[in-house]
Design brief:
This protein is α/β, with parallel strands linked by helices and 457 residues long. 33% of the residues lie in helices and 25% in strands. The protein contains 12 helices and 23 strands. The structure holds flavin-adenine dinucleotide (FAD).
């Protein structure tokens, strides 16, 4: 076991996570009289809102995942450590993390926990084998392999039933991620791949968007949700609402309709875009501090985003439960900046800030090229203007000038042309994940587990 803490009298801040919460907290502490250690299980910051574009071949993974080390290279008071945090000890004020078998214990004076959330299958984790979620680069690349691979296998298939099964794509969850994913698969099939095959007609692919709820994009309200649904249907997506998934296997998905009738949809490629569950680190924090957890495992924090009895521990982003705030990037960014400011005032001996107040900057989702929905307070719009707003906002938040330039170039290729610049898929992306994990578990039992026996497309 190693302790790699820098020697010296400065206040030690440990940040867990390099997502929106972790990275923005670290950047806010630039120039502060503190030593910052950011521990994360990946070496990159991930711009999750554009994962679906990696999965559908528009963007490369590098464009949405800059190296955290590079982003913080010029911040002298910050260092980055690779590691899966396995244990938090609030009494001893230490964080234990592990990277490929090497266990490190890092002490802190203040801790900011921003470990985010994973996919939730609502107690049906076995569904994950056949319907991957979309939370990481691994997920997006695996889905890219499954989506493009389904067309490849359909070109080889010998019976109409087999072709139909391979060319039916089911997306579960009609929130922003599901809508964006379904819209992009439809555009891929009906527009991009139209001329690429000889036996099959990709334009005849069926894209089904399912949700147990009764509306598309419920958080955007009835009007925008209705427009999103109409636009999806116009580009050929079949929207099925009030449909609860009751079974998923390698060749299809079983749903129960609102009237209690069950139905099977034969489909090899399924995408799970419904439900999140906060990092299991939340349970450790709750157990040691007495904080409450909600059903999604989020930690109820005090008005200053700290834990009861532990003013030195902040929880921000998707793990945090406060004022029913949603799990969106702005909540993580604003919470992270607030925690960093509060912490700096404490270190400087200044009076604390008033309670955290979230400023809602609105929400947006794309449906297809040139079409999006935007809701900012009372202002609501949809269509081309909304799409331009979506484009601008996402360009601003992509980290790094070179990533912005190449992203813009790829958008021109995909949205003005009909190409996809990132169609590479390898057998490893589709099949080797399970094998690597098996190897990894023997080597390091703390590696995150992916359900085994994932069949390819
Ligand atoms: C597909 C998708 C689309 C989305 N679209 C939008 C959108 O359009 N608009 C929007 O506002 N929001 C969107 N969101 C939500 C938004 O991305 C999240 O709210 C935001 O990323 C939360 O930030 P966070 O820092 O709390 O968590 P994350 O960004 O998830 O970061 C968590 C970090 O913690 C690390 N980590 C986790 N566990 C451990 C551990 N045990 N040890 C070490 N490190 C760990 C992870 O590697 C990661 O670096 C989307 C999310 C997804 C998945």
């Amino acid at each position: 076991m190693t302790d790699t803490t820098p020697a010296g009298p400065r206040h030690r801040v440990v940040i867990i996570g390099s997502g929106f919460g972790g990275l923005f907290a670290a950047q806010r502490l630039a120039g502060a009289d503190v030593d910052v250690t950011l521990v994360a299980r990946t070496t990159h910051h991930l711009f999750q809102p554009l994962l679906y574009q990696v999965a559908t071949g528009i963007l490369s993974e590098g464009e949405i995942a800059p190296a955290t080390r590079e982003v913080l290279a010029h911040q002298a008071n910050a260092r980055v450590l690779l590691g899966e945090v396995t244990r938090l000890d609030l009494e001893a004020r230490t964080v234990t993390h592990s990277a490929v078998g090497r266990v490190t214990v890092t002490p802190y004076d203040s801790l900011i926990v921003a470990a985010g959330a994973g996919q939730s299958y609502f107690g049906n984790d076995r569904f994950a084998r056949h319907a991957p979620g979309m939370k990481s680069i691994d997920d997006a690349l695996e889905l890219r392999g499954r989506i493009f691979g389904s067309f490849e296998l359909a070109e080889l298939a010998s019976t109409p039933a087999e072709i139909e099964r391979l060319m039916t794509f089911v997306v579960v969850g009609a929130g922003p991620t599901g809508v964006e994913m379904a819209g992009q698969i439809a555009e891929l099939a009906h527009r991009t791949l139209k001329r690429d095959f000889r036996r099959i007609d990709p334009a005849s692919a069926r894209v089904v968007l399912l949700d147990a709820a009764s509306a598309v994009l419920p958080s955007f309200g009835e009007r925008l949700g209705g427009r999103a649904r109409a636009r999806l249907e116009a580009i050929g997506v079949e929207v099925r609402l009030g449909a609860t998934v009751v079974g998923v296997d390698s060749t299809g998905i079983d749903v129960e309709r609102a009237d209690g009738e069950r139905e099977r949809i034969e489909a090899v490629c399924k995408v799970w875009a419904a439900g999140v569950s906060a990092s299991p680190l939340g349970a450790q924090l709750a157990e040691q501090s007495g904080a409450e957890l909600d059903r999604a495992g989020r930690v109820q924090v005090l008005p200053d985003l700290t834990l009861p009895g532990h003013p030195e521990v902040f929880v921000v982003g998707d793990m945090m439960l406060r004022d029913r705030l949603p799990g969106v990037a702005q909540v993580a960014i604003q919470g992270a900046r607030y925690a960093a400011d509060q912490l700096m005032r404490r270190v400087a001996g200044q009076p604390p800030l008033p309670a955290f107040r979230y400023r809602d900057k609105g929400s947006m989702a794309t449906i297809s090229r040139f079409s999006a929905v935007v809701s900012i307070g009372r202002f609501q719009t949809s269509g081309f203007l909304a799409w331009l707003m979506w484009l601008g906002v996402h360009l601003v938040y992509i980290i790094g000038f070179k990533h912005r330039v190449t992203t813009l170039l790829h958008w021109v290729i995909s949205f003005l042309g009909r190409g996809r610049a990132e169609r590479v898929m390898t057998q490893q992306q589709v099949f080797a994940r399970t094998a690597i994990q098996d190897l990894g578990e023997d080597f390091d039992p703390t590696l995150p587990r992916v359900p085994k026996d994932r069949p390819g497309p």
